[in-house]
Amino acid sequence: MKKNNPVLLIIAREYLTRVRKKSFILLTILLPILMAAIIMLPVLLMINSEKKQHTHVLVVDETEIFLNAFEPNDNVTFSYASGDITTFKQDILQNDKYNCILHILNNSQALKSNLYYKDKVPNSLPSYLERQMDDIFFDRILQDSLHINPAQFEKLQELTKADVTTIQMDEKGNERENIAEINEVIGMVCGFFIYFIIIIFASQVLRGVLEEKTSRIVEVIVSSVKPVQLLIGKIVGIALVGITQFVIWVMLTFGILLIAQIAAPSLMSGSVSETAVPGAEIAADTLPADFSIFQKINEYFSVSFGEIILCFFFFFVVGYLTYASLYAAMGSVVDNESDSQQYTLPITLPLLLSIIVVPSIANNPNGSLAFWFSMIPLTSPVSMLVRLPAGVPLWQVFLSMGLAVAFLVFCIWFAAKVYRMGILMYGKKVSWREIFKWLRK
Questions:
Q1: Are residues 118 and 246 in the same domain?
Q2: Burial class of residue 325 in the structure, from the number of CB atoms within 10 Å of its CB (0-12 exposed, 13-18 middle, 19+ buried)
Q3: pLDDT value of position 108
């Protein structure tokens, strides 16, 4: 009878133990929903509340400049009156003829006004009224003081208005409109997100090694398998947990986007072009004719959305394996989690430093700081993800990946050497000098 591979057994044990936990299931399902709710719910609530609430404004103008001058819209209408403001304030308390009173004061020093209301008015109403008052008052000055026709002045403004569009060119000369602010935000979000998931899953490896060592279970396990096999099984098993969670997150995120498109098509209007949206021809039979959510997402990035997902997956896996190997090695040389901090802190510092410089990298993704941080293997998982939405030359992406893989091979070799010596050592604090001596054995 063929003997089972011990590494596969350890991988299966680590994987099944974690995916069956309630915390894994809840985090896997709730995180995409929570993220989507944080982004979309306030916007949808604001849009719906602004659409549903109609505001009737009574304008009491002492200057007589704004009489019959405000322009109504679907949500705001105006009435005009003159007289004692005290009387009108009493009226708003006693009946519902109007929602608020805009009292424009006759002040020679400045244009001042008060907005009185009983029930809550939309938050955007004061700024909406201010913009209209500014325009009306400016037109009045143009016409009365400078004798300039406001319509002609507005036309002149339109003709002399500057418009700068940022267009990025790739190495082949292809042009693409680039929205720098959106790229910066998306890059920072990707950088922070990959930092947290790498730390979370690598810390699980550290805790797992410490639990087995402190409970002495490892002594029983290594009687049947080699320490290196145990190390590989533990790291790969938890890696598969992270990959499973990542794939589910992506699928749920796309599902939420589909639901958002169907539920609120007005937020993402347009049409789908099969040439503009990768994969649109595959889903053409299943999506509405006006479906455009992936096109809208693709417009926000200087690289394709699929490229960002693939690079995120690569740097997550390589970054996790790198830090998990180092964490496992450090966990094997101590007897408790508090002692492990002195060994894991030097390893974690580069990753923490990459988080500190995220704003600088996002602001200047092609600068020397961004380049070198995206090449150093211990900082590249965060830094390259921050740079990617703004567009990174392909050779830099492949160079960063190659360096990350080469360093991962070194980390696995280092971890295997240290783990083999440290996992069965108790009651002794190991110095860094002694750890490096183990590498020669």
A1: no
A2: buried
A3: 60
SS3 label, residue 43: helix
Flag whether 402 is in a domain: yes
User: Which residues lie across from 167 on neighbouring strands?
Assistant: 177
Helix, strand, coil percentages for the chain (3-state, nearest 5):
65, 5, 30
Cβ–Cβ under 8 Å, residues 379 and 402: no
Are 223 and 364 in a shared domain?
Answer: yes
- 18 is a domain residue: no
Q: What is the pLDDT of residues 27-86, one digit of tens each?
A: 777 777 776 665 556 555 655 555 556 788 999 998 888 888 899 888 889 999 988 888
Q: Are strands 100-104 and 175-177 parallel, antiparallel or unpaired?
A: unpaired
The partner residues of 59 in beta bridges, in order of sequence, read: 80, 102
* Pair (423, 360) in one structural domain: yes
Residue 54 DSSP label: -
Q: How many domains does the chain have?
A: 2
With vertex at residue 55, the alpha carbon angle to CA 49 and CA 57, rounded to the nearest 5 degrees, is: 155
How far apart are alpha carbons 313 and 298 in whole angstroms? 18
Using CA atoms, how far apart are residues 104 and 114, in angstroms rounded to an integer?
Answer: 7
pLDDT tens column, 279-330: 333 333 434 444 444 555 555 455 566 777 788 889 988 988 898 888 888 8
Q: At a CB cut-off of 8 Å and minimum separation 6, what does 181 contact?
A: none
Handedness of CA 285, 288, 293, 298 (dihedral sign): positive
Strand duo 100-104 + 55-61: pairing: parallel
**Beta partners for 176?**
168
- CB atoms < 10 A from the CB of 298, how many? 16
Which of 115, 134, 152 finishes a domain?
152
SS3 56: strand
User: From residue 401, how far is each of 310, 317, 319 by CA, in Å?
Assistant: 12, 11, 10
pLDDT at 404: 92
Q: Which residue range(s) make up the domain with 147?
A: 55-152
In the chain, which residues have pLDDT < 70? 1-4, 35-53, 108-110, 163-183, 222-223, 257, 260-305, 427, 441
Strand 76-81 with 55-61, pairing: parallel
pTM, 2 dp: 0.61
